[in-house]
Design brief:
The protein is mainly beta. It has 4 helices and 37 strands. Strand 8 and strand 9 form a beta hairpin. Helix 2 runs parallel beside helix 4. The protein is globular, with a radius of gyration of 25 Å.
């Protein structure tokens, strides 16, 4: 089956024009327009189509994928355009016969003539995965050559017509009246009889300008790199209308006039399901300003329950503040207004510079005991080159003493970069990179039923998958992340991502387990990257990507650091994935 980017639009100024041209290249703008009274001009001169009097009509025999995506269309129209449309099957009509003058959005191969006409146009395309969006005077027909491509067509219509609206009830037709969208690369991720994932959306959150123009994100100097992405979908907000907003935390490497480089915090949000992003905040140090900046190795988290004086829905931002020659510490900030303003509330741990520092914090609230846990890498103990520890807090301000999670017997071993998720069976699953002498690194995991009890000396289990022939073994090297979701089968689905093994079998895969980590398979990465050594050393493409779910456990928000093909510089991209059981 095929994996394709259903939609790609970059908000980075250097590539936005190219993105728009590539998305809309297949669309014909010359189809006859609806009557003038149905339209009004937008600011860019394109037409707006009044959608408020339409009904959504789908084929009676549409499969579950199409039915589910049609429900998404209804919700998106209500959210973006303020119109509450009905959904009905094509056999239903109060007058027992289709009304050719009725205003309808036709989904799949309905019994309407406009669906037949659209299918005739679609069949002119040789691409077996193509879909068509065909807008005539009273009908909008959306259908594909397969059920999967029909569902993709609906999603494309949501992202490129509905969510781009500029006025209430006004459907934006700048994408064209007739659009036949082929697929030149694959858009579906599948493991036969086990997992089926559609890539609903791919967008670029931010990237490095080709010639480093100053201050495009409000920073005082030049952006040289972006990395360490983190993202959440708000779902515990006191104002319910804020739930569903995406908030991201990203690290900006700023090339200062003099060395060293600064690593700065960047908080961004998306209110249109990941399509467009804007900078909303830049947390700064207030407790300890000795390092000068607070944006390295950051993580963002939403409290699902009250913690001390922090209400449910409070956003927690944790970050390294570091001067690599002198000192490091892990700070914690909180926001109660969806990320617009931040207050630093505590310092979890302190360390020295390179070889003696504290790094890579990840927050996790444990509903079993009501504690907020901070897992991080610790270089400060002379008996261990590095170990993984956690501290926990009942209020986000006072932190208990560190507890070892990985402290291996060989002093030169370096376990680090922990990320934790909770499995459906109640176990806690911790993934980390295990670096040994000579910087030989692989991704391992450990599990426990009690988050407070780990066997620190246990090196855990190597994550590996095999090719169908058994000839190749696939592993990951560094910068891991993990996510368990109940979607995808009786045991749910466990994902592990990270940077692939540079010295082993090259791949750009995501690891998947359906048995809580006992066995693994690989799927293609919707946000692929190149081996970073082929471009610029120390720019870590594919390093510590993040996957999270929100209110719908079958929808995955995935962010990764990838390379801009034309320049080799870094960018942070977002993909929305949908799991079908």
């Amino acid at each position: 089956m095929k994996i394709t980017n259903l939609f790609y639009r970059s908000i980075a100024l250097i590539i936005i024009l190219a993105s728009l041209l590539s998305v809309f290249a297949a669309c014909n703008q010359d189809i006859t327009k609806p009557p003038i009274e149905e339209n009004s001009p937008t600011q860019d001169g394109s037409d707006v189509f009044d959608i408020s009097k339409y009904a959504i009509v789908r084929r009676d025999a549409s499969d579950n994928r199409i039915t589910s995506t049609t429900a998404n269309l209804k919700a998106a129209i209500k959210e973006a355009l303020g119109a509450e449309l009905t959904v009905q099957t094509d056999w239903y009509n109060p007058n027992n016969a289709p009304d050719p003058n009725a205003k309808e959005i036709l989904i799949d191969r309905t019994n309407r003539k406009e669906s037949e006409d659209a299918l005739t146009k679609l069949n002119e395309s040789d691409d077996e995965d193509a879909f068509i969006i065909d807008i005539t005077e009273n009908k909008i027909a959306i259908l594909g050559k397969t059920d999967i491509s029909t569902a993709r067509g609906i999603t494309y219509f949501i992202n490129n017509y509905v969510m781009t609206s500029t006025k209430e009830s006004g459907l934006d037709l700048s994408a064209g009246k007739t659009c036949i969208q082929p697929y030149s690369v694959e858009m579906n991720i599948s493991i036969e009889n086990k997992l089926d994932i559609d890539v609903n959306l791919v967008s670029t959150i931010l990237g490095v300008p080709e010639k480093n123009p100053s201050d495009i994100l409000g920073y005082p100097s030049r952006i040289s790199d972006v990395h360490f992405p983190s993202v959440i979908e708000l779902q515990h907000q006191p104002k319910k209308e804020n739930n569903g907003i995406l908030i991201g935390a990203f690290c900006i490497i700023e090339t200062a006039v003099t060395n060293p480089k600064n690593t700065l915090a960047c908080i961004m949000k998306s209110t249109d399901k990941g399509l467009n992003w804007e900078v909303i905040a830049r947390p700064s140090e207030t407790i300890d300003t000795s390092t000068g900046w607070a944006g390295s190795m950051a993580h963002i988290y939403e409290l699902p329950a009250k913690l001390g004086n922090l209400p449910a829905g409070t956003l927690i931002y944790s970050s390294n503040s570091v001067n690599y020659e002198r000192s490091s510490h892990i700070g914690v900030w909180r926001s109660t207004d969806c990320g617009k303003t931040w207050k630093e509330i505590s310092i979890v741990a302190r360390g020295g510079g390179i070889g003696e520092g504290v790094w890579e914090p990840v927050m996790f609230y444990n509903e079993d005991d009501g504690y907020l846990y901070c897992f991080y890498s610790d270089d400060s103990n002379a008996k261990h080159d590095q170990k993984i520890v956690y501290k926990r807090s009942k209020d986000g301000v006072k932190w208990e003493s560190a507890v070892d999670v990985c402290a291996f017997n060989k002093s030169t071993d370096r376990p680090g970069m922990p990320v934790i998720t909770k499995l459906g069976n109640g176990e806690f699953f911790l993934v980390y990179e295990y670096v040994r002498s000579g910087y030989n690194s692989n991704i391992y995991y450990k599990k426990t039923k009690d988050i407070t009890k780990w066997n620190p000396a246990d090196p855990g289990t190597l994550i590996k998958a095999f090719s169908s022939s058994g000839a190749n073994t696939y592993v990951l090297a560094s910068g891991p992340s993990c996510l368990w979701t109940p979607a995808g089968g009786k045991n749910g689905t466990l994902f592990v991502t990270g940077q692939y093994q540079i010295g082993g079998v090259p791949h750009n895969s995501i690891f998947v387990s359906f048995d809580n980590g006992m066995t693994w398979e690989i799927i293609k990465n919707p946000l692929p990257y190149s081996n970073y050594t082929s471009y610029v050393p120390n720019v870590l493409f594919g390093y510590r990507p993040i996957m999270v779910t929100g209110a719908d456990p079958s929808v995955i928000h995935y962010v990764n650091t990838t390379n801009i093909q034309s320049t080799g510089k870094s960018q942070i991209q977002y993909a929305q994935l949908k799991i079908y059981d």
